[in-house]
Amino acid sequence: MPALDEASLSAIWLTLKLASITTVLLLLLGTPIAWWLARTRSRLKGPIGAVVALPLVLPPSVLGFYLLVAMGPNGPVGQLTQTLGLGVLPFTFAGLVVGSVFYSMPFVVQPLQNAFEAIGERPLEAAMTLRAGPLDTFFSVVLPLARPGFVTASILGFAHTVGEFGVVLMIGGNIPEKTRVLSVQIYDHVEALEYAQAHWLAGGMLVFSFLVLLVLYASPLRQGWRG
Question: GO CC annotation: what is one (predicted)?
């Protein structure tokens, strides 16, 4: 059986790099969003929750198209980045990160929101009676109790980013060593009728996906996911 070629190894490395950076950013951005959604009684909870969950039902090509327009030279984000001297984000690795953050957002926010809601009021009230401040309560009480949710959110966010295709193809195109991720590399192998190489990569993703689901469904983490 043929070994993986240099282009495939580069795509694997780029995909892992993209998924790692995206997961870290999603945890930083998604935690306050999930906490607000879990605690607020605002009328905006429904609309904001729907926006966060939109990638679950929206075709990736649609999301990728509008992100491409927004980040393009004539879009609002593109004009801002050009004013800041950053150029435009489409067809760059930074653009892939932005698209991946939007596309994988619900896979991080929803497990965190479920974990926060499952904590209930009693631990927070107990912390208040001990005169703990909001930040102290969050880091000393909420984070330890929500740990399963954070682990699940990290796994789901990482795995979902690894499996992206439509969004990354729309935003990043197919530039070797810059934007050609694993899913796009498989597509290229199939187009070139290089089925042996495609089997290696697709089989690896199949095993990876199965192991992710096995961890989530056959371990105590499942309780944290379901809240």
Answer: plasma membrane
Pull the structure tokens for residue 133.
Answer: 């401040």
Specify the pLDDT at position 225.
Answer: 43
In a domain, 8, yes or no: no
Q: Phi/psi class of residue 91: alpha, beta or left (left: φ > 0; alpha: ψ in -120 to 50)?
A: left
**For residue 13, what pLDDT is reported?**
92
Hey, what are 121's tokens? 């009021």
How far is 26 from 99, CA to CA, in rounded Å?
12
Interatomic CA distance for residues 117 and 124, integer angstroms: 12
As a whole number of angstroms, the distance between CA 72 and CA 69 comes to: 5
According to DSSP, residue 80 is labeled H
What is the reported pLDDT for 54?
92
Query: H or E element: which one contains 5?
Result: none
Calculate Rg over the CA atoms of the chain. Answer: 20
- DSSP string computed for 207-222: HHHHHHHHHHHSSTHH
Q: Structurally, how many domains does the chain consist of?
A: 1
Find all residues with CB under 8 Å of 40, minimum gap 6, and list them: none
- The 3-state DSSP composition of the chain as helix, strand, coil percent (nearest 5) reads 75, 0, 25
Q: In this structure, what token pair is assigned to residue 13?
A: 């490395």
The whole-model pTM stands at 0.86
Amino acid type, 163: G
In a domain, residue 10? The reply is no
Mean of pLDDT values over 190-216: 86
pLDDT number for residue 3 = 59
Q: Are 224 and 147 in contact (CB under 8 A)?
A: yes
